[in-house]
Write a structure and sequence with these properties.
Number of domains: 3
Helix content: 10-25%
Radius of gyration: 20 Å
CATH superfamily of the largest domain: Pseudouridine synthase
Shape: globular
Order of helices and strands: EEHHEEEEHEEHEEHHEEEEEHEEH
CATH topology of the largest domain: Pseudouridine synthase
CATH class of the largest domain: Alpha Beta
Number of helices: 8
Number of strands: 17
Structural class: alpha+beta
Largest sheet: 11 strands, mixed
Distance between the termini: 29 Å
Strand content: 25-35%
Length: about 300
């Protein structure tokens, strides 16, 4: 699935690829910058190919690909954002990569950092009347891809058709113990208690049906690294399902974890594929999980 974006921000320079080649030589030829300058632009995440930020020098390009270079001025604005970075932006949506420890929104302490407050301040720099609207949430200790709308109409449009707009939601999880199955599917019904804990039932108990598919990427005796795909998007779904199969997400004391090797929740929203609400084109946004996930499960 390839992302086919409109312009990410007015402060990008866009190029079309004419023939197959590697990214670094293409940038050297088109940007007229020195080799060191181009490498710096790549390492700072200022280059996107078909809407996905690329840092690899040897990334292969195909004819028809769109390469966008974020200007130094715009990159400086992005770098000033705390707890998040912008993966994609256009007239209708903003997609971010949220760090663990940052609330999505609605902090009790109005001064506390949230993804919503940071993005709100960011869009108002261009126009004081600009606003952002949260489309879906990530838990405070979950990092990764998160989607915002730039108008209430776009927000409603995305939320009302969420099941058809979202083509794929993929996560990476570090879970406790050695997962024996190479892959599997977990189906149950989820209900939330008055104390805001979600519990699972194997048969329909009036709760919400939840489906999680998993694939083991690697593992050792202490931890396993899983690729997870959500067929449904219920509150705390992955965390509850991992506890159910006896392999709670590392660091998730609420749902059965006994260890916290990462000093955070071992859950990362790695992939989001959506149909764009305006262009109706398929967009795929990817955030690589922290390297610590892989190191702990080798």
């Amino acid at each position: 699935m390839r992302n086919q974006p409109s312009k990410r921000t007015p402060k990008t320079i866009e190029y079309k690829v004419g023939a197959e080649q590697l990214l670094l030589p293409f940038l050297l030829a088109t940007s007229k910058k020195s080799r060191n300058a181009v490498k710096g632009i790549l390492s700072r995440g200022q280059v996107a190919v078909n809407g996905r930020v690329i840092t690899r020098h040897d990334h292969p390009l195909r004819s028809g690909d769109t390469v966008e270079i974020l200007t130094n001025e715009a990159a400086k604005q992005d770098s000033e954002l705390l707890g998040l970075s912008i993966l994609y932006e256009d007239e209708a949506i903003i997609v971010i990569d949220k760090e663990a420890g940052v609330l999505s929104m609605a902090a009790k302490d109005k001064k506390e950092l949230t993804a919503f407050s940071e993005l709100s301040a960011y869009v108002r720099k261009e126009n004081r009347g600009n606003r952002v609207f949260i489309v879906h949430r990530l838990d405070r200790e979950t990092s990764g891809v998160m989607l915002f709308a730039k108008s209430e109409n776009i927000k409603r449009q995305l939320q009302d058709s969420w099941e058809t707009v979202v083509i794929e939601r993929g996560y990476t999880a570090l879970v406790e113990g050695k997962v024996r199955q190479e892959s599997g599917e977990i189906i149950s019904w989820l209900k939330e208690t008055r104390t805001f804990k979600v519990y699972s039932n194997p048969t329909d108990n009036g709760g919400q049906k939840a489906i999680t598919r998993f694939k083991r990427l690697q593992g050792n005796a202490q931890y396993s690294l899983l690729e997870l795909k959500l067929a449904t998007g219920r509150k705390n779904q992955i965390r509850v399902h991992m506890e159910e199969i006896g392999h709670p997400v590392a660091g998730d004391k609420k749902y059965g974890a006994a260890t916290n090797p990462l000093k955070r929740l071992g859950l990362h929203a790695a992939r989001l594929s959506i149909i764009h609400p305006i262009t109706k084109e398929l967009h795929t946004f990817i955030s690589d999980p922290p390297s610590s996930f892989s190191r702990k499960s080798k």
